[in-house]
């Protein structure tokens, strides 16, 4: 008679989201790499004598990489679900179980 019981849901470890610390650390590393590339572009644009098309490419990298780095650093991991907001029903006639008092 074991077949009548409902089997509980089993969650695998791979279903878990990464910790907040790991997510922040990953975003910090990504930001530092992008800003390092930006610094290299800035140095190449100013110091190294290269033709103007390459110099403009380095200048564009120095200008636009900070924007890309900040957007990437502020973006939460893809595994994080979007926040959901549930509004209570307007015609609720019963007090929720977690709000009941003793003797009610």
Automatic annotation (TrEMBL):
Transmembrane segments: 31-50, 56-73
Region (Disordered): 78-104
Domain of life: Bacteria
Pfam (any one): DUF3099
Keywords, alphabetical: Membrane, Transmembrane, Transmembrane helix
Name of the protein in question: DUF3099 domain-containing protein
Natural source organism: Nonomuraea longispora
Phylogenetic lineage: Bacteria, Bacillati, Actinomycetota, Actinomycetes, Streptosporangiales
């Amino acid at each position: 008679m074991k077949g009548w019981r409902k089997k509980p849901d089993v969650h695998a470890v791979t279903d878990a989201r990464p910790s907040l610390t790991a997510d922040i650390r990953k975003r910090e590393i990504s930001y530092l790499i992008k800003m390092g590339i930006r610094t290299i572009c800035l140095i190449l644009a100013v110091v190294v004598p290269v033709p103007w098309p390459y110099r403009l490419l380095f200048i564009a990298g120095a200008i636009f990489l900070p924007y890309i780095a900040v957007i990437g650093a502020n973006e939460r991991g893809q595994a994080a679900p979007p926040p959901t907001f549930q509004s209570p029903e307007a015609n609720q006639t019963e007090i929720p179980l977690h709000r009941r008092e003793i003797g009610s």
